[in-house]
Each structure stands twice: as C-alpha cells, then as structure tokens.
Amino acid sequence: MVEKQMSLEFLEKVYCVAPCLRLVMDGEEHSGKHLYNFFQFEIEWRTSSMSDVFKQGEKILTSMAKEILEDSTGFVE
User: Fold this and answer.
1) Which end of the chain has fewer surrounding CB within 10 Å, N or C?
2) In a domain? residue 77
3) Is residue 76 part of a domain?
4) What is the pTM assigned to this prediction?
5) What is residue 27's DSSP assignment?
6) Taking a C-beta distance cutoff of 8 angstroms, is the pair 26, 34 a contact?
7) Which residues lie closer than 8 Å to 61 by C-beta, 6 or more apart?
C-alpha cells in the first residue's frame, strides 16, 4: 500500500489491519477453494530485522486470536 510506505517516512513502525477483496476468476466462484473477502494484517518497520518483525507479528496475531475466541464463546468449539 502506498499510504503505508509514505507513513514510514515519518513513523518508524506502521501497522495495518484492513479488509481485502479478491477478484473472482472464471470458474472460481463455485470451487469453494478461494477466499474473496478477508482481513490482511501488515507490519512495516523501517529499521528492524525481519526476525523482530515476525516476533511482533506473532504476538499481535496471538492476542487478536485470543480476543476473538473470548468474544465468540458459544460460537466456536
């Protein structure tokens, strides 16, 4: 995303959770194998190693998953 790259000029760390829509190709609409709407999670750090970014991403995704599971008690088994 252009906005995320531009933000890195002023901020050292940028996080983004955004809805994504994928175009449907011929024959895919009934296959059941493709997600067309999903959320994308991105981390951009200007000066950190890839390992540091992965560790932080794992912490954030784990926290988000715990929140979702707690909020969906009775819906998820």
Assistant:
1) C
2) no
3) no
4) 0.61
5) T
6) no
7) 41
